Give the backbone structure.
Amino acid sequence: MPLDREQIAKRAAMELRDGFIVNLGIGIPTLVANYIPDGLDVWLQSENGLLGMDRFPTEAELDADLINAGKQTVTARAGASFFSSADSFAMIRGGHVDLSILGAMEISQDGDIANWMIPGKMVKGMGGAMDLVAGVERVVVTMEHCNRKGASKIIPECSLPLTGKRCVDLIVSDLAVLEMDPKRGRFVLKEVAPGVSADEVREKTAAEIIIEGEPEVIAVD
């Protein structure tokens, strides 16, 4: 069965490392805050000016003034700091964020990402996505493998306006985990969701991908 949103976030959280500063994008990535592995000291950064973002609040903890970049209410861990958006982007552009977890509408087989607009639809702007894919050392994308019409979102070439080129390192979809091989310039199938075969992933991926041997099964429990 394909992974649900919570399971995708849980698998993405396995990419966190002790001491990392991590930026979480809007959508599925925000759920990663609830699945930080025990024993890891991870600092979550938000473009609107917060370092030390914590899990979503309970009703008793809710503070309408404490929000993430997607305007969702969050909590702050002990030692958190607050600063201007300008300082936040200086942190991102200066290479001080170790990992960015983003959503995407399309990803190309070269690792290009399109995640900020659909032509003809009203958008508020680019946001921090372009800076994140350019200034962060490792970029992980969480997404559904196919769109609502059943068409693959991992394709030979993006048709939507690009956010960044050759910048995606890892994809965690509801069907599989694919990692970019920089030497071959293609994604390699590493893991599949429980009950999903490598053949199904290949069938539902329009892009050229590399499949070598039997992929591991994503641990979702």
Q: What stands out?
A: The mean pLDDT is 92. The chain has four helices and 14 strands. The CA atoms of residues 17 and 40 lie 7 Å apart.
